Amino acid sequence: MNALSDGTIDIENLSTARDTQTLIKLLMNEKDLSAFDVLDAGTAMRFLTAYFAVHSKKEVILTGTARMQKRPVEILVNSLNSIGAKISYENEEGYPPLKINPLEQQTSPKISIPGNVSSQYISALLMIAPCLPLGLEINIEPPVFSKPYIHMTLGLMDLSGIQFLQKDHVISVKPQHYKKGKQSVESDWSASSYWFSIIAQSEIGTQVFLRGLKSTSLQGDNVIKEIAKNFGVTFKFENNGILLEKISAPQKQLLKLDFRECPDLAQTILPCAASLQVNLEITGLESLRIKETDRIAALQNELSKFNCLLTEPEKGVWKLDNSNFKVNYGIEIETYEDHRMAMGFAPLAIKAAIQIKDINVVNKSYPSFWDDLKLFGFELVEK
Q1: Three-class SS of residue 94?
Q2: Which of 185, 183, 201 is nearest to 193 (CA)?
Q3: Structural domain includes residue 177
């Protein structure tokens, strides 16, 4: 939004995460580059696809890592091309790298897009909507997954002076300008989830204070505070943060969870539930197939090392069976080039020493993760 408004928004508390810093670097060097490499930042790929489609004054190439070139972007590209954008594929149809030419004329003010694939497609379209000559009406075809991320995008646009109308699954944005102002980025509830997991697996009475988390957060992943109650964790907001405490043993009855609106929590909750031997019935995992890795397959592989089974007995309904949970000293956790695999399984070291491969994957979203674990008392030995 700051780039679309030519730098009128003063942003505070930006993350040091690699994804954030990659996006900043590319936007700052926009005038000097013709090829833009987002590395493994899926958010940057989706947002920049829309951004360059309407904002670029020259032809650009948008690319990423080998894995990024296997992550589909066709739905977003088709949506943008349907309103006059000129985006084509350099290699495989439907996947990066992309060739994006300047928008000459908006041919339609309306887009219809599936709501069950990636909310980042919708956020990308929403942010460019005010900058289009005809504005944009987005029909989000139900079912709609990750609604909180859409609401968060609209909330930030509202704070930056953008007016919109929302009726059922249709969002309309007229041509207008982002206003000047100052915005402070919230601390990340997705990152906080690992600390909920750590406290859940700790002894009763264990506490940790997480600074910068707000009770009025726009982030959907703040639902972790409610989910963690099932694991014996309570919370209290105070002094610009939240205090977590383990107060009881976890519930033992089957826990049913729907991850449609919080898919990034799956890799926190499943290993935690496995460790606590809380069996799960899970829905809303569909979007995990197109993340940094196939996260469902990755979870199945790594949970099996603890004698736990993640199965799909009926389409769209997953079961996590932890009845035979066992942790052996030195179990190796593959990360699949996925930051959430490393951080989601790390708390299981409370039960027994484990090995995490490729520890640098956390730089994508939480660069200080290992240092923070040390502060809490974890002993880390790097090999």
Answers
A1: coil
A2: 201
A3: yes
d(CA 370, CA 300): 24
Q: Is the pTM of this model over 0.70?
A: yes
The first and second tokens of residue 356, run together, are 């995490």
**Amino acid at position 152, single letter:** M
SS3 content of the chain, % helix, strand, coil (to 5): 35, 20, 40
Domain, as residue range, for 170: 9-184
Q: Rounded distance, CA 259 to CA 292, Å?
A: 17
Q: What is the pLDDT of residues 347-377, one digit of tens each?
A: 999 999 999 999 999 999 999 999 999 999 9
Active-site annotation holder among 32, 264, 294, 321: 264
Q: Are the C-beta atoms of residues 276 and 200 closer than 8 Å to each other?
A: yes
φ and ψ of 196, to 5 deg: -60, -40
Tell me the pairing of strands 110-114 and 136-141: parallel
Question: 252, 278 in Cβ contact below 8 A?
Answer: yes
- The domain boundary residue, chosen from 184, 199, 225: 184
Residue 75's CATH number: 3.65.10.10
* 32 and 68 assigned to the same domain: yes
- Would you call 258 a catalytic residue per the annotation? no
pLDDT of residue 28: 94
Query: 40 with 364: CB under 8 angstroms?
Result: yes
List alpha helices for 8-118, DSSP H.
Answer: 18-28, 42-55, 74-81
Q: What is the pLDDT of residues 202-230, one digit of tens each?
A: 999 999 999 989 998 889 899 999 999 99
Q: Does residue 178 carry a pLDDT above 90? A: yes
Q: Could you tell me if 175 and 134 are in contact, meaning their C-beta atoms sit under 8 angstroms apart? A: yes
Q: Please indicate, yes or no, whether residues 306 and 265 belong to a single structural domain of this protein.
A: yes
- Is 275 part of any domain? yes
Q: Are residues 23 and 71 in the same domain?
A: yes
- Asked whether residue 158 is assigned to any structural domain, the reply reads yes
The span from the CA of 381 to the CA of 344, in Å, is 18
User: Do residue 130 and residue 50 come from a single domain?
Assistant: yes
Residue 239 domain-assigned (yes or no): yes
